[in-house]
Write a structure and sequence with these properties.
Blueprint lengths: L7 E6 L12 E6 L5 H9 L17 E5 L5 E4 L10 H17 L3 E9 L6 H10 L6 E6 L6 H15 L6 E5 L8 H11 L13 H8 L10
Parallel strand pairs: 2-4, 2-5, 5-6, 6-7
Antiparallel strand pairs: 1-3, 3-4
Bound molecules: guanosine-5'-diphosphate and magnesium ion.
């Protein structure tokens, strides 16, 4: 079953003090307001209205937790960079997200949504700066790629890939469109790999003890039946 299918809402929190006790590996989704984050989550989950798709960006300042079928947790971080958000809300957002990204030990990877027409803004770089030093992976989705034709889309992909490579090999990037449903499998494969749930490729030499160790945790959190 694809990794994000049948995600179930668990809890929303507004303050670092409200963070639930870690219970399973977490994958965070972040991005500027209007980057297409809610649409991407809904597309990946195969759900029309799991995450709210907004016409008034910047309203949600909550962290939403969704339980995945494999036992891992999808963490939907509040969108950032919306100009009309009051200064106090912006500061609270910064404090909440910085604490979460820097200190959450159960957070194993970050999926960062950027509008493919204007990627790598100042705030996107700030997010990367808060999380990349942990050495844990960041996967960038260049969203709304249907709005670019093939040449410019490819050029954007290469330019962002080059810029990300400065942070280390754990930063990856792809094109994504919720409208056309393109890029879904590529994203699923990356996150499945982060969770140690990937199928070994044919031809790989499999060390069964290592594979078993990598799959414990995420795979065993789910109660059968
Ligand atoms: N053309 C196109 N528009 C999209 C796509 N994804 C999102 N949008 C539009 O972009 C706007 C913001 O999307 P939303 O998912 O709410 O962004 P969020 O603020 O990051 O959660 C909405 O008007 C969406 O319909 C996409 O893949 N292609
Ligand atoms: Mg949204």
């Amino acid at each position: 079953m694809p990794i994000f299918r049948n995600a179930q809402f668990e809890i929303s929190i507004a303050k670092p003090s409200g963070l639930p006790a870690p219970n399973g590996p977490e994958i965070a989704f972040a991005g500027r307001s209007n980057a297409g984050k809610s649409s991407a989550i809904n597309t990946l989950a195969g759900h029309v209205r799991l995450a709210y798709v907004s016409k008034t960006p910047g309203r949600t300042q909550l962290i939403n937790f969704f339980r995945l079928n494999c036992g891992a947790v999808l963490v939907d971080l509040p969108g950032y960079g919306y100009a009309a958000v009051p200064e106090k809300v912006r500061r609270d957002w910064g404090a909440l997200i910085e604490v979460y990204l820097k200190e959450r030990e159960s957070l194993i990877g970050l999926v960062l949504m950027m509008d493919s027409r204007h990627p790598m803004t100042e705030l996107d770089r700030q997010m990367i700066g808060w999380f990349a030093p942990s050495g844990r992976p960041i996967h960038v989705l260049l969203t709304k790629s249907d709005k670019l034709s093939r040449g410019p889309a490819k050029a954007t992909l290469l330019a962002v890939r080059k810029e990300l490579s400065a942070y280390g090999p754990q930063l990856t990037v792809q094109l994504f469109s919720s409208l056309k449903k393109t890029g879904v499998e590529e994203c699923e494969a990356i996150v499945t790999d982060w969770l140690g749930l990937g199928e070994p490729k044919t031809g790989d030499v499999v060390d069964s003890s290592a594979t078993g160790a990598a799959q414990t945790g995420a795979a065993e959190t789910k109660t059968p039946g």
